[in-house]
Each structure stands twice: as structure tokens, then as C-alpha cells.
Design a protein that fits this description.
458 residues, alpha+beta, three-stranded antiparallel sheet, 12% strand
């Protein structure tokens, strides 16, 4: 969708209030109900519905009434919220022409009040040219559902954090100015993408500089993962600048070597074709001979010497700032892993209960006053176990503290077994029905209950 900022001058405070209300509602709703928008915006005299109609006309919202009457933000509406916030901060005061289009972003010129020109990058995850986010990026991890606007915000946070850190460590990157939602503002590079350059005065020097950047990034614990002629800027003095950082990963990533070799191969292949550098002949034998690789100067991931103060560790490995790490980890699945662990524990306890109660099969309950063979054997085992119990029938506190200190899960299960064993000795176990008895429709247990009712009527 084309960014038309002319509409921005005609929007009122109420319009932005309703846009913000829709954004807040999308935290828990894919389509935000109209009643919820009205409650969040809290406009006087029911003016929310009139504002929604105006925003819908300018395509800042999308209306969906398939299941219920509701709205969601479009990318244009999300753009206006980010731009309005940055303008209020004084980051820029004017928006100029579009200077770049990528598979997952759009870049525009913006100007400050003093005339300084900056670059504004709007992330656009979800467009047709780039929808394989789950397989190409690590934003989602274990999550299956997602929102494109929120993923764009995560990509912007990640790029801004990397750009800030690389700038502080002396890497040739744009100057990070500010970030809000899915928008990143940076300094404008006075140069050209390397893919548009046809001739270089010193191609060997530029090539060595670019390969040196790949190695230096790896020494600081990072791999670019998309280091090619499209993401390298070069000016008239042949000064190189790196751009585009959302996909960067740590050297500890399980595919780090593959990404590193791919970045190196992209640079070798481009310079051999575009500038006819003479390392292509030996590059074909570099995998089979160490001598050829040394002659060519192709760096190896195994030979990278890691320096102290890794950037991936400073950025909490995933690339996000520590301030937003907790919120992002909750989104990307850390809580899901904890839930899975807790589910495993519960299933293990249920398995123990099932093993302990194997003599009380469904449909064959043990009647009171009867003692099965398994009950007798269990009581005999419990009597020997019960010798270590005090008068109250519990384990002494000293023994409980020292026993299995390093295995709390095992202690929990053993205590559960002891309690059940004590109940069996002192007063007999209770008859537990099946856990799935409420699901049994027309089965053996329901059939038996019907027969008993009929017999009671007789």
C-alpha cells in the first residue's frame, strides 16, 4: 500500500485516539469488536462510529463482519501511528520521496527542522514477496499464530538494537537515530547499492574490505546472513557501508557455519562475475585443497578467532534489547516450553497414579470389606515401609530434609506414594472412577449404570 502522507494533515486527535484504541485491542483480538473500540476510545456522544467510518474511507482500517462486526489496523494506519509519534518527538518534520523498496521494507527520505535529511525504514513483513517468516526468521520460534504488524515491530526492534551496537563498536553502518513500532530512522548514506555499480577503481581493495567485514563480524559473535551486493552501500570514494540487519544471528546458531559460508560465497561470486577478479578458477577446488583456499584467501568459519565482549551476548543473543527481552520471549515461545515441561510432569504423575491403581479397573470396583490379593501384598510392603514413620504416620522432619535434597521431583512423587500407602493401611483406599468417565457415552460404565437404575426401579 502506497504511503500517502497528505491524509495525515487532515486527521484529528479523535482519529488518532480511535487508531490507538484499535491497536490496543489487537493485542488480544485479530479483529477488534466495534463495542470494544468504543469503550477504549471513550469519545463523547458516541463519536467513535463516525470516526471509524472516516478512517475506513482513508484505508487506515479494514472492516470485517464475517464472524462479528470488527476492525483491524492496516499497514497504512500503523504507519500513521508511528510517524505521528516520531513527529511529536521532534525526530523529523517532513517526509520526502521513496528511495528504496525491499522484499520486507520500504525506505523514505525524511527531513529534520534544520534541513538535515535522514532515512526512514518501514518494515512490511507479510507482503507477497516475503511471507515465509517462520522458516526464514527466528521471530516466531515455537509459536504457530502471529500478527504481521507485531512481527514487523519485532524486526524493527532487532534492527535498531544491532545498528546501535555495531555503530558503538566501530563498524561502518548507518547512524541509528530513533525507532517506534515498525519504523526505524537512521542517517542517510550518500552512496549507491553495490549491485548498481559497474566499475571500481580498486576492486581488489573493496573486495578485501568487504571480506574483512564478514570476518570481523564473526569475531564479534555475529553473522549477517544476507551479506550480498544488495545490502552493501558504496560511495564515490569507494567507502563501504553495511545495511539491513534484522536477520543477523549468533555464531552459536546451529546453522552458523552455513550462513557464514553463504555470505562469503555471495561476495566471491559477485566480484568474479562483475569485476572479473581471478580467484574463481581456484575457488572450485577450495573444498578439496587447503593450498587453493589459502591462495584465494577464502576465510573459513573454523579458523575465526573469537574476541572478548561478544555482541550477541551484549544483545542477549537473540538481538533484542534487554528492556524488551522478557516481553518478546513470552511471544516467541519460552512460556510455551515451560508449559510443555509442566504438562510432562503432570502426565508422569498421572502415569504413577495409574500404575498404583491398576487393581481398580473401570467396571470392576473393589467392594468395601473385600481385600484383593494386590491389596494384601501392598499392605505388607507398607508395613515395612511404615517402620520409619512417627506416631502421626508421617516421615520425621529431619529425614525429610536430608532425603533426596537434590531431586525435588522424585521426593514429590515418593511423598505422594507414601500418602496413598498410608491411606491403604489405615482405612483402605477410596474407589476412584475413571478420569474419562465424563467422556464415556454409551460405553460399558454408562451401560452398567443404566442397568443398576433399572434394577433399582424393580
Amino acid at each position: 500500500m502506497k504511503l500517502d502522507v497528505d491524509v495525515l494533515r487532515y486527521l484529528s486527535k479523535d482519529d488518532f485516539r480511535v487508531l490507538t484504541a484499535v491497536e490496543m485491542g489487537m493485542r488480544n483480538h485479530e479483529i477488534v469488536p466495534s463495542e470494544l473500540i468504543d469503550r477504549i476510545a471513550s469519545l463523547k456522544h458516541g463519536g467513535t462510529y463516525k470516526v471509524l467510518k472516516n478512517l475506513l474511507k482513508h484505508k487506515l482500517l479494514h472492516h470485517d463482519s464475517s464472524k462479528y462486526d470488527g476492525f483491524r489496523l492496516t499497514y497504512l494506519g500503523y504507519d500513521f501511528l508511528a510517524i505521528k509519534t516520531l513527529v511529536n518527538r521532534g525526530v523529523f518534520t517532513a517526509i520526502g520521496r521513496q528511495i528504496g523498496v525491499g522484499k520486507e521494507s520500504d525506505i523514505f527520505e525524511v527531513a529534520k527542522e534544520d534541513g538535515t535529511v535522514l532515512a526512514m525504514k518501514l518494515h512490511r513483513l507479510g507482503r507477497v514477496s516475503f511471507r515465509a517468516v517462520k522458516s526464514k526468521r527466528d521471530y516466531l520460534k515455537h509459536r504457530s499464530s502471529y500478527n504481521w504488524l507485531y512481527l514487523s515491530r519485532l524486526a524493527a526492534l532487532k534492527e535498531f538494537a544491532f545498528m546501535k551496537a555495531l555503530e558503538e563498536h566501530g563498524f561502518p553502518v548507518p547512524l541509528a537515530v530513533d525507532s517506534n513500532r515498525h519504523c526505524v530512522v537512521m542517517s542517510l548514506i550518500q552512496g549507491y547499492p553495490l549491485v548498481q555499480v559497474k566499475e571500481l577503481q580498486n576492486p581488489d581493495t573493496v573486495f578485501d574490505t568487504i571480506i574483512g567485514l564478514v570476518v570481523r563480524l564473526a569475531e564479534h559473535g555475529l553473522i549477517h546472513c544476507d551479506f550480498n551486493e544488495f545490502n552493501i552501500m558504496i560511495d564515490d570514494d569507494e567507502k563501504v557501508t553495511m545495511i539491513d540487519f534484522p536477520q543477523m544471528v549468533s555464531v552459536s546458531h546451529h546453522n552458523a557455519q552455513m550462513y557464514f559460508d553463504r555470505d562469503v560465497e555471495c561476495i566471491f561470486k559477485f566480484f568474479s562475475k562483475r569485476f572479473n577478479l581471478s580467484f574463481e578458477e581456484n575457488a572450485g577446488h577450495s573444498d578439496d585443497s587447503k593450498v587453493d583456499s589459502e591462495e584465494v584467501g577464502r576465510p573459513s568459519f573454523a579458523d575465526i578467532k573469537k574476541v572478548t565482549g561478544f555482541l550477541d551476548k551484549e544483545l542477549s543473543a537473540s538481538g533484542f534489547t534487554r528492556k524488551d527481552q522478557d516481553d518478546i520471549e513470552r511471544f516467541t515461545g519460552d512460556d510455551v516450553e515451560k508449559d510443555l515441561d509442566s504438562d510432562d510432569t503432570e502426565s508422569a504423575d498421572e502415569h504413577i497414579e495409574k500404575d498404583e491403581g491398576h487393581f481398580e479397573e473401570e467396571g470392576n470396583p473393589v467392594e468395601q470389606g473385600e481385600t484383593s490379593k494386590e491389596d494384601t501384598e501392598m499392605k505388607q510392603d507398607v508395613v515395612s515401609e511404615n517402620e520409619g514413620l512417627n506416631d502421626l504416620g508421617t516421615v520425621p522432619e529431619e529425614d525429610r530434609q536430608t532425603e533426596h535434597e537434590n531431586e525435588p521431583e522424585l521426593t514429590k512423587r515418593l511423598n505422594k506414594q507414601r500418602r496413598r500407602a498410608i491411606q491403604a493401611v489405615q482405612g483402605g483406599r477410596k474407589n476412584f472412577t475413571s478420569r474419562n468417565s465424563y467422556k464415556d457415552k454409551g460405553g460399558r460404565s454408562s451401560h452398567n449404570s443404566k442397568i443398576q437404575k433399572q434394577l433399582g426401579n424393580w
